Write the structure tokens for this entry.
Amino acid sequence: MRYVDRRGVAPPASLTRSDGAGARELKRARGHYRDKSAGSFAFAAYKGADVAEAMRSLFAGKCAYCESFHSASSPTDVEHYRPKAGVEGDAAHRGYWWLAADWSNLLPSCALCNRRNGLRIAQPGMGRAEVSALAPVTVGKGNLFPIRGRRASGPRGDCEAEDPLLIDPTRRDPARHLEWPQDKLSLLAPRFDGREPDPYGRATIDVLGLNRQDLVEERSRYLGIARVLLANAEFALTAASVLSGAGLQQSLLRFDENLASLKGMCAPDQPYSAMLDAHLNQRLQDLLAQYRALRAQRRASASEASAGERELAEDAVDA
């Protein structure tokens, strides 16, 4: 999960125009919810084609929560950060119906983050075989929305006072609450403040199942590929430091190719880029510093050689 600035994409017109589908639906919903005994309401405005396109553009086709590419194999769930039709664990709450077509309450989500499912959840220190032997547990957001403050119960309620525990990556920077410790598999963990885990990080991981088996294995596969590219770049740079001529040029070319591939994997629009940044950023910066130092050394050597050649030529003329 990584921070995404919602201002990078224009809000969909169908939800923001005064005569758009969102405004018309909200008016009908207000009438519906005036009846305290009324059942569910058929929300549909958030399903507009311009909403789906804005979601895709904002998150580059990735799930807002787990950073998986999912649109190629399954439809995007337009996820309501504050659930629109009820809150699990609070039977009296009718859901945040007034936010059902509010652009700021919508996120693109894969089905496994958004829906309740029985999945195996990896724990620190486990290998693949140990995870496969676990019993499934029910995870996924569904209508869960844990908070620390007072829950807003209607359009006049103060949503800001709720202090939601679930991280919305367009409101709160996940990097301040989550970390990627070294482990057998690529597990996500809450940051620790002293002995206590960050409550936002802990709740987000648990609710969404961000250490579910298939996700952990896919993240681990991506991390393995990136580490191979990094090792190849390091080897090429080491070779370049002792070579000259054609051998030097070939080593630098291999370095550039591996570095370009690695940077491509770490780009914000790529899957699991927050994980790759956390694991590889420092080593990548060190490698770039070594590369710049090598180039500077080679330029200095070339300048010294040129100066020496000039001196020999001048001596020959004087003689």
